[in-house]
Amino acid sequence: MKKLILTSSLVTILVSVLAAQTTLDDLRKRAEEALGKKQPSSDRVAAGLKEALTVGTRNAVASTGRVDGFLKNAAIKILLPEKLRGIGRGLRAVGMGQQVDSLEVGMNRAAEQAAPAARQIFINAVKQMTISDARQILSGSDTAATDYFKSKSTNQLTAAFAPIVHKSMENVGVVRQYNKLMQNPLAGELAQSKDFDLDQYVVGKTMDGLFYMIGEEEKKIRHDPAAQTTALLREIFGKKQ
Q: pTM of the prediction?
């Protein structure tokens, strides 16, 4: 009977082949696992985006729709309209700064009272999201979901906020304060202008502030593990860490 004699060189080759095969198998397994993580099903993506939007908008509405939610947040505080800032500086210079402050406080209070009305509008926008929308949002910019909300809800928000803002500004005296401001000689020709609508200005700034806060919430959910508070959010966004 002939004996199979393996030379040291042949042994080395066989060991190398086996090691290479093991490495390839391991790499293939890791690639398959990674692929699974990077490509969740369309249904899971849609569910994850809807959950992220629900969480983000809930937090944004909660933080803005309360006392000082706008006024004490420097990023979204509503200041005097640009056309009135020169008048405001003039009034402060002659000791009438309190009148200017009262007007600014009133505008911010109106925004804070209007913000909660956005909650149901955002819920409706989330329900309308399609799987195609979800995929585009997931692969989009850090504020892609916020941009989606802007496209879907701006008109509804304007309609919902307008009566709330107007009523609030009347209740807290903004309309009276504004009219008084316009009677000041410093107002000049601006007092006669019909181009400026105070209600429209505050409604617009309320939406700007709300969308800004939603955008900040979205960025956190996309990149901050601490903000990914559910298993689904971690599944969809955690891979980006």
A: 0.75
User: Can you spell out the DSSP letters for the chain?
Assistant: -PPP---HHHHHHHHHHHHHHHHHHHHHHHHHHHHHHHS--HHHHHHHHHHHHHHHHHHHHHHHSSTTTTTT-TTTPPPPPHHHHHHHHHHHHTT-HHHHHHHHHHHHHHHHHHGGGHHHHHHHHHHT--HHHHHHHHTS-TTHHHHHHHHHHHHHHHHHHHHHHHHHHHHTTHHHHHHHHHTSGGGGGGGG-SS--HHHHHHHHHHHHHHHHHHHHHHHHHH-GGG--SHHHHHHHGGG-
Nearest Cα to Cα of residue 201 among 119, 80, 116: 80
Domain boundaries defined on the chain: 42-240
For tokens 């960025």, name the residue.
219
Residues 79 and 85 sit within 8 Å (Cβ to Cβ): yes
Given its phi and psi angles, is residue 188 left (phi above 0), alpha (psi -120 to 50 degrees) or beta? Answer: left
pLDDT at residue 187, rounded to an integer:
61
Rounded-to-integer distance, Cα 36 and Cα 26, Å: 15
Question: Which pLDDT tens digit goes with each residue over 197-224?
Answer: 888 999 999 999 999 999 999 999 999 9
Residue 196 pLDDT > 70, yes or no? yes
